[in-house]
Amino acid sequence: MTEVKSWTTRRDAKRERLAHAGSLLDGKFAQTEDVVALLEHLIKPGDKVVLEGDNQKQASFLSQALVRVDQARVHDLHMIMSSVSRPEHLDLFEKGIAKKLDFSFAGPQSTRISQMISDHKLEVGDIHTYLELFARLFIDLIPNVVLVAADKVDRDGNLYTGFNTEETPTIVEAAAFKDGIVIVQANEIVDKVPRVDIPADWVDVVIPADEPYQLEALFTRDPQNITELQILMGMMAIRGIYEKHNVQSVNHGIGFNTAAIELLLPTYGEKLGLKGKIVPNWELNPTPTLIPAIESGWVKSIHSFGGEVGMEKYIAARPDVFFVGPDGTMRSNRALGQVAGQYAVDMFIGSTLQIDQFGNSSTVTSGRLSGFGGAPNMGSNPTGRRHSTPAWQSLRPAGDPLGKGQKLVVQMVETFGANKKPVFVDHLDAEEVQKEAGLANVPVMIYSEDTTHIVTEEGIAYLYKTDSMAERKAAIEAIAGVTPMGLRSNAQQLADLRARGIVALPEDLGVKRGQAKRSLLAAQSLQDIVEWSKGLYNPPAKFRSWS
Amino acid sequence: MKNSFVELNARQRAFALVDAGTGRELVGALDYMISPHLMPQGIVPESDDGVVLVKGKVADKNVVIISIEGKFQGGGIGEVSGAKIVAALEQALHDNENGIEVYPVIILDTGGVRLQEANYGLLSISEIHNMVVALKKYVPVIGLVPGKVGSFGGMSITAAILSYLITTNRARVALNGPEVIEQEAGVREFDSSDKDLIWNTLGTQQRVQTGIADEIVADDVTALKDALTAAILEKKEAHRTEKVDFFLSLLDKVDFSKPLNPQEYRKLYRENVAQPHQIAEARSTDQAGTPSRGRAWFEALTGIKNAQTNVSTVLDATVDGKTYIAIVPDANNNLFPRVKNGEVGLKEGFAVAAVVNRVVAEDADKAEKRPIVLVVDVPSQAYGYKEELMGIHIALASSAAAYAKARQAGHPVISFIPGDAVSGGFLAHGLQSNRMIALADESITIQAMSKASAARITQRTIAELEEATKHVPAMAYDIFNYQKLGALYKLVEGIASNDPSPANVAQIEKLIDEAITSAQDDRTLHFRYENPVAKASGRKATLAMRQAVADQW
Amino acid sequence: MEKLTFEFKNSQKVTKAVHVGVVASGDLEVLVYPTDKQVTSLEITTGSDGFKEVWGNVLQRFFDRYPLLADFKINDFGATPGVVNLRLTQAMEALKDEE
C-alpha cells in the first residue's frame, strides 16, 4: 500500500493559519490595533505576498503594519507588487522581512530601488508590465497571502472598492480560488455596501484601517502649465495622425502633451470639422482635461484603469460616458483596462524621456529604475489582434497578400527636455541601467519596431512608412531638431523625406506655428475645467489657484 | 468662450484695456532701458524691466495704463521699473494740474520689492504712494489685480491707497506672503502648504467681503474693460486709507490671542461700526517703557520722560511747534503678540494715521504748517495670520498716505533715523518724508526684507546673501551703503544710535531745523533724485527713465 | 548667467524693429533692430550657462531658412531650443506683418 496523497495541502494550511489567528478574529473581522499580530499569525517565512499598491491607490495601512512585524517570525518574503511607491515598501527589504521582489513600476522609489539592487539588498525576480504581473499571479506567482484595500466593507465581508477598484479583484481572485489568504484593510465598515465589487466569499479577514488608504491624484494636469510647443505638437498630431488615420479609439499616456490634445479637440478639432468623426471611444483614466471634450459631445465612452481624485461627482453624473454601477459610482478595472488598451484601441499616444537613434524609447534614466507600468502594453502592436478598423488598416504594408494592419503607437516629445538635455540620444541610459542592475534585458519602454510615429515640435516622422533601418534613422534625425542626432540630418534629406510623405513639417500639415497659442485651449486653468464640469469636478486642494 | 485677461502678458493687457487703435506705448521694449543692477548679480534682465506704459483712451477719456509683468522676476519693483511707474504717474499729475484730465490705471501683478535691488524698490514704492495720493485730488487712480501673482509686499500698500480695486478670483492681495509669515513666525502661525487656507484668507472672494478689494469680475478681457470703464466714468473711490476709526474700532473687538477664521472675520467686519478714536499726546509717567533707540531719542527730543500715550506702541508729542512721532516696542504687548519688538502692526499703522490726520486737520486753516518729525526705529512690519486676514497693508497704507497728504498740504515731514528702517515698517513710517537724517552707526539696518526671509525667497544661505549684498548698495543692509543711493539728507557721523546725550540731541535738533528750512517750499520727494549723490550715481538710472518718459509723454 | 555673441552673414535686410516674448521662466524675449552693417549680430544674455554650441546650432538652422540681416538682442530665462526657435519664428512673422 502506498500512502494516500493529500490534494488539499494548501487548503489545510490556510485553515490552520486562520485557526491560529482565531483569537484575533471575530468572524472575519479583526481589530485595528491587532494588525501587526494578525500579520505575524497569518504570514509565514518565504510566503509569496501580494501587497496592493499601484500608482494611485495604496494599501498603506497594511504596508505600514507589515514593516513592523517581528523579523524573527516573518522573513524572506517574496513580494509581488504592481508598484513600489512608498518608503516602507523598500524598508521591508532593508529589515529582512522580505527578500525577493517581482514588480512593475517604481516611479517614486526609482532611485532607491536602483541603489538597493546594486547593493544586493533585494533580489529582483523581474520587472513586468502590469498585465504580465497580473497574469503570473495565475501561473507561477500564485500568492499565499494578499493584502488589499477597500473603501467600504459590510458586516458579511462584501467589499465596495468603487472608483478605485483598479486591480483589487484580480489580486483577490488569484488568492481566493487557490487557497491563499485575503486580508482587506477597510476605510469604513458599513451595514450595507453601495454595491458588491468583491463578494464576501472571496474574503478571509477584514481590518478597519486607522486612516483611509493613500490615494494620489496622479492623472490631473493643470492646464495653466501647458506650453505653446505642446499646443503646436498637439495641433500637428490632430491633423497629421488623428485626422489622417481616422482614429476612432485611443489611449492617452499621461502628460501635458496629451492633455493639450484633449483641450484642443473642442477648439481646434472643432474648427477642422472633426467632431463626430474621430476618437469617440477611449481607454483612459478619468483625466480632468478631457471634460471640455466630453461636454462638447466628442466622447462616447471612456473605460478606466483607475479613478481620479476629484472626478467622483462628475463621473457619477455622466454614466453614458463612464463605466458606472447601478449604485451611481464609477467602477474601474486595471486588468481589463490593460487588455482593452492593448487589443481594442486604434492608437496609443504618449511621451517619453529618451528616444534612441533607432526609435527605441525609455523613461529609465541613469540611476533610476522606474519600471514599466502599463506603457509597454499600450505602446505595442498586439500581434494576436484579428479585428480590423480603418486606422489599423491604414498602416497595412502594401504588396503583401497576408499583410495586416498595425496599431498606431505614437511618441510625442519636445527635442530637448525641460532640463535642456536632448531627448534624442544615440544610446539610451537604460543600457547602462541594465548593466548596473544586472537585468536580463535592457529596460526599453517601447521598442522601435512598435513605434509607428514620432511627433516633435519640428514635425512628424511616419516611421511605419520606412523600408529600412537606415531610412528609419534618417526620418528620426529629420525631426530631432538641433540635438546631436538631429544635426546629422541635412536639407536635402529632409526634402526627400517630405516628398515621400515620411516626414511632415507643420506647413505640410496646414498647421501655422503662430496659431499655437494658449488661447486655443478649451480650458486654460483647472478653474475653467470646474466651470466646464458645471461645478461637478472638485480638484484637490493642492491644485487650488483661485478663490 | 471667454477671452482670458490673466493669460495675457503685461503689454497685451495694457493694449487690451484701451480702445482699439488708441494705444501708444512709452519707453517700450525697443528702447531697451534695462535694470543696471540685475546682470552684475547674474540675473537676466528684460528690455522693459517688467513695466509697460501705454497711453490711450477708454470711453473717450485719456488714460495711462501702467502694467506690471508678473512673469518677469515675480513682478518685483526695481529702480528702473519703479522709476517708470513714478514718472508716468508724475506726468499724469502734471497734466491733471494743467487741466488735462488723465486717468492712471495700474495693473498690479507683483510680489512687491524686487529683492535684487531691494533698496531701490522700497524707495520707488514710497514714491508711487506719494504720486497716487497726489493724483487722487484730481482723478481716481484705478487698480486691476488680475492674478496670477496678485499684489504683495509694498505693492499691496499701493493697492490699498489706490482709489478702486478690480480683481479676478485668480488673485491674492496681502502684505506678507504665507511663506514669509511661516519663515518669520512659524508654521503654526501660517501653514504655507495649505492652499485652501491661503486662498480662503488672501483670495479676492474673501477680500471683497472685507474692504480690501472692491470688485471681482470674471477673467475675461471684456469684463475687466467694462469694470474699468465704469470705475472711470463713475469716478469710483473706496477711501480705503481714510477709515482709521472704523479699523481701530474693529481692532477693539478682535482677540489676538484666539484663532479667527475668514468667515468669523467677515461677520465681525460686517457688523463693525466706526467709533471715534483719539490718540492722546504723550506724557511723562513713572513707568519706563520697553527700551529702544527710538524711544530713547523720542524722549530726549521731546523732553518727555517715560513717555506714554493711550497706545502702548505709538508716541506722539508736539514740542516747540514740531510734532514728533515714534513707533516703539512693547515687550508686554499682550493684545498683539506679533507686535512686541517695535514692528509696525495694524494698531500702529492706524494710530499713526490718526495722529497725522489730526495734525493736518488742526493746521488746515493755518498758513504755516507744523513740521512733523518721525523718529524711525522699525525693525519690520508685523508677521501674523490675523494681521494678514484683517489687511495689515491697509494699516500701513493709512499712515503712509497720511504722511504723504501732510507733506503735500505743506507740512515739512522729516525723518530722523537712529534705529532700523526695514520693509513695510519703513514705508509706513519714514519713507514719505522728503528729508531723511540718519546716524552713521553700523548697528542700523535698512532693508526691504529680513535676511532670513530674503535668503529663503532667493534660495541662498544668509552667509551667501550677506556676501552678495556687502558691495551692492542696491540691496545692502547698512546705512553707509544706503547713503550711496542719495536717499539721505544727512548721514551724521560721530553719534552713536544709543547715545541721545544732550550734546548729541542739540546737534540733531539743529539738523532737523535745517532740514525743515530746506523742505520749506518742497512738497515733493524730488530731493531724492536731485541731490549730488543721486545725480552722480545713486539714481542715475531713475533720472534717465524720468527723462525718457517725459520726452515720450 | 552667460553673455554670448554671434555673427552671421545674412542677406535679407530688416526695415523695422520688432519685439516678441517675455523673460519668464523657460521663456525669452527677442528684439530685432535694423542695421547698416553687413553682418547680422546677436547679443544673447542667458540664464543657463554652457549652451553656446546649442545656441549656435539653433541660430544656424533658423538663419539658413530666414537669412535676416539685423541686430538681435535676446534675453533668455532657460528656454529650450524648441521655444527659442518658436520665438525667433514669431519675430520673423512680426517683421512680415509690418512690411
TrEMBL record, chain A:
InterPro entries cross-referenced by the UniProt entry: MadA (IPR005777), NagB/RpiA_transferase-like (IPR037171)
GO molecular function: transferase activity
Position of the signal peptide: none
Matches recorded under Gene3D superfamilies: Glutaconate Coenzyme A-transferase (3.40.1080.10)
Top-level lineage group: Bacteria
Name of protein: Malonate decarboxylase subunit alpha
Source organism: Ligilactobacillus saerimneri 30a
UniProtKB/TrEMBL annotation, chain B:
Annotated ranges, domain CoA carboxyltransferase N-terminal: 1-240
Pfam families in the cross-refs: Carboxyl_trans, MdcE
Keyword tRNA-binding listed: no
Keywords recorded for this protein, A-Z: Transferase
InterPro entries listed in its UniProt record: AcCoA_carboxyl_beta (IPR034733), ClpP/crotonase-like_dom_sf (IPR029045), COA_CT_C (IPR011763), COA_CT_N (IPR011762), Malonate_beta (IPR017556), Malonate_gamma (IPR009648)
Molecular function (Gene Ontology), one example: carboxy-lyase activity
Positions of the CoA carboxyltransferase C-terminal domain: 263-553
Any Gene Ontology biological process: carbohydrate metabolic process
Entries under PANTHER family matching the protein: ACETYL-COENZYME A CARBOXYLASE CARBOXYL TRANSFERASE SUBUNIT BETA, CHLOROPLASTIC, MALONATE DECARBOXYLASE BETA SUBUNIT
Protein name: Malonate decarboxylase, beta subunit
From TrEMBL, chain C:
Protein name per UniProt: Malonate decarboxylase acyl carrier protein
Main location: cytoplasm
Post-translational modification: Covalently binds the prosthetic group of malonate decarboxylase.
Modified residues (O-(phosphoribosyl dephospho-coenzyme A)serine): S25
Pfam families in the cross-refs: ACP
GO CC annotations, alphabetized: cytoplasm
Subcellular location: Cytoplasm
Alphabetical UniProt keywords: Cytoplasm, Phosphoprotein
HAMAP family reported in the protein's UniProt record: Malonate_deCO2ase_dsu
Organism: Ligilactobacillus saerimneri 30a
Source superkingdom: Bacteria
InterPro entries: Mal_deCO2ase/Cit_lyase_ACP (IPR023439), Malonate_deCO2ase_dsu (IPR009662)
